[in-house]
């Protein structure tokens, strides 16, 4: 990864990159780049990190505003032999402090805003690192860009394929995220290389215009960066915001043929699908990861495309494993889900690469088709471990199998039906299926979250544009469902979320009820 941009600039130099705002590390403030320009920026950044004291084997923590330059900085760290740890600035100050204490980085690369945010919450983030490099300002006791700019980086450092390459954190929906260590073999050799195959219909083509609206601190985009650049599409558009009015100009200037985004971004951008000149009219492939996207949203994007047969590719996996299953949606299959059948069928395991089994949570004995239990996975792409939490990692390993912490059932065709996270489950119903049904029946609901609370009926939370809900329509929508408590209606911004847009269910439950106890054990979170 340290020479990725150099090699791709040499062999795929025609790719153009378009940004919705300039990189935080680019003094020229350009919003359009060629691959040779990006390769130069990575080499310069490698010089900055070396000048700040980072070297082979050191951990370099990166915490900043959301942008693709997370991966440019990670590649710069890899170039000098360091191990980048990408941490989302969306995390709270105390959580960032905990993660940095586990990492013990030689260098923290961050911004003045992040440091100030930590101080306001009572955490001195810079204290965890041997040195701190601030990208955007002068902060006493830290290095600024004037201290490191212009330094020449040493030659690229090569490491063994099984040595740590990069550290990413999990989403953190149930508490403090885990720090996941991947090697070159696992995240590049097993994951990125698999995505670099030009598969019929869904594979990336040289003439494609690819748009990505993601959380660039997470492992998915690090893998995506490696595979996408090697495939050499015509254009890449980077969207850092979930505000549709800010994303729209870039999308319209470079209408994508391949679109990847966070589930939350798909929901926020959905109003853009409604016009005849919508920016998604050329899309032939849509890619979603991190979490399921509800059927109404899937249908909206597939219908917005004027392509003859657009395909929605849904991947399910975890930071620790990469993708474990794939499922494909077409206009026809999405319409079949219009009654609320949902998108919780995760599809079949990735051929050759992945095996899945469903087991009893108490005995870990395999269960027959149709019976719900813990989903275990076996994959050669499994990470090396958790930083500072060896016992937690060991608890999730069962021989050669990895405990996903999800409750699901195997269908007769071999596909997996996802029911709930083990920690979020309730005996009355599947929270996830119920959410799908409610969203299908109430189009004005942007998102539904069913919260399980021990000893009480599940609590439904509905997100609407104005935080209001028609009670008569609600009663009609849930008339045939198991008992639910009276719904709570909120706006999008009132719901606590992770950097990838997932709902922090335990935090939301605490805000609304003052409690966090659920039916699940939480042993495998």
TrEMBL record:
Residues 20-386 form the AMP-dependent synthetase/ligase domain. SUPFAM superfamilies: Acetyl-CoA synthetase-like. GO terms for molecular function: acid-thiol ligase activity. Pfam families: AMP-binding. Gene3D superfamilies: 3.30.300.30, N-terminal domain of ligase-like. InterPro entries: AMP-bd_C_sf (IPR045851), AMP-binding_CS (IPR020845), AMP-dep_synth/lig_dom (IPR000873), ANL_N_sf (IPR042099), ATP-dep_AMP-bd_enzyme (IPR050237). This is Long-chain acyl-CoA synthetase.
């Amino acid at each position: 990864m340290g020479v990725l941009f150099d090699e791709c600039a040499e062999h795929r130099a025609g790719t153009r990159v378009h940004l919705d705002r300039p990189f935080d590390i680019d003094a020229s403030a350009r919003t359009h780049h060629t691959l040779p320009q990006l390769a130069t920026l990575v080499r310069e950044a490698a010089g900055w990190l070396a000048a700040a004291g980072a070297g082979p084997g050191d951990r370099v923590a990166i915490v900043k505003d959301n942008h693709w330059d997370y991966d440019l900085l990670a590649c710069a760290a890899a170039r000098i032999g360091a191990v980048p740890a990408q941490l989302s600035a969306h995390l709270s100050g105390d959580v960032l402090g905990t993660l940095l204490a586990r990492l013990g980085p030689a260098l923290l690369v961050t911004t003045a805003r992040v440091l100030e945010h930590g101080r306001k919450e009572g955490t001195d983030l810079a204290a965890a690192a041997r040195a701190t490099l601030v990208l955007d300002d002068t902060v006493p006791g830290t290095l600024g860009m004037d201290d490191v700019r212009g330094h020449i980086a040493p030659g690229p450092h090569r490491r063994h394929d099984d040595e740590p390459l990069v550290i990413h954190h999990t989403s953190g929906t149930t508490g403090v995220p885990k720090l996941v260590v991947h090697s070159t073999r696992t995240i590049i050799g097993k994951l990125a290389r698999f995505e670099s195959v030009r598969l019929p219909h869904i594979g990336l083509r040289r003439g494609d215009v690819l748009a990505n609206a993601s959380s660039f601190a997470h492992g998915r985009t690090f893998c995506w960066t490696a595979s996408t650049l090697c495939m050499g599409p015509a254009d890449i558009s980077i969207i850092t915001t979930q505000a549709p009015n800010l994303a729209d100009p870039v999308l319209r200037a470079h209408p994508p043929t391949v679109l990847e985004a966070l589930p939350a971004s798909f929901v926020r951008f959905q109003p853009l699908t409604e016009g005849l000149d919508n920016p998604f009219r050329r899309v032939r492939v849509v890619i979603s990861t991190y979490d399921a996207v509800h059927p109404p949203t899937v249908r909206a994007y597939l219908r917005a495309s004027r392509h003859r047969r657009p395909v929605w590719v849904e991947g399910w996996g975890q930071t620790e494993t990469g993708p474990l299953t794939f499922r494909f949606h077409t206009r026809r299959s999405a319409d079949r889900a219009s009654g609320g059948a949902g998108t919780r069928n995760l599809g079949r395991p990735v051929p050759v690469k992945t095996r899945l089994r469903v087991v009893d949570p108490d005995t870990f004995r395999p269960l027959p088709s149709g019976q719900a239990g813990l989903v275990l996975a076996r994959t050669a792409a499994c990470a090396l471990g958790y930083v500072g939490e060896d016992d937690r990692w060991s608890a999730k390993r069962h021989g050669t199998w990895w405990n996903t912490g999800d409750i699901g059932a195997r269908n007769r065709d071999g596909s997996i039906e996802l029911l709930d996270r083990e920690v979020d489950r309730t005996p009355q119903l599947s929270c996830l299926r119920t959410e799908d049904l409610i969203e299908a029946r109430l189009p004005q609901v942007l998102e539904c979250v069913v919260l399980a609370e021990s000893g009480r009926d599940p609590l439904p939370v509905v997100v609407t544009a104005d935080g209001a809900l028609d009670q008569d329509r609600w009663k009609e929508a849930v008339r045939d469902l198991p008992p639910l408590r009276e719904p709570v209606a909120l706006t999008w911004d009132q719901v606590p979320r992770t950097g990838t847009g997932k709902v922090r269910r335990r935090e939301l439950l605490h805000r609304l009820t003052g409690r966090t106890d659920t039916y699940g054990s939480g042993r495998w979170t």
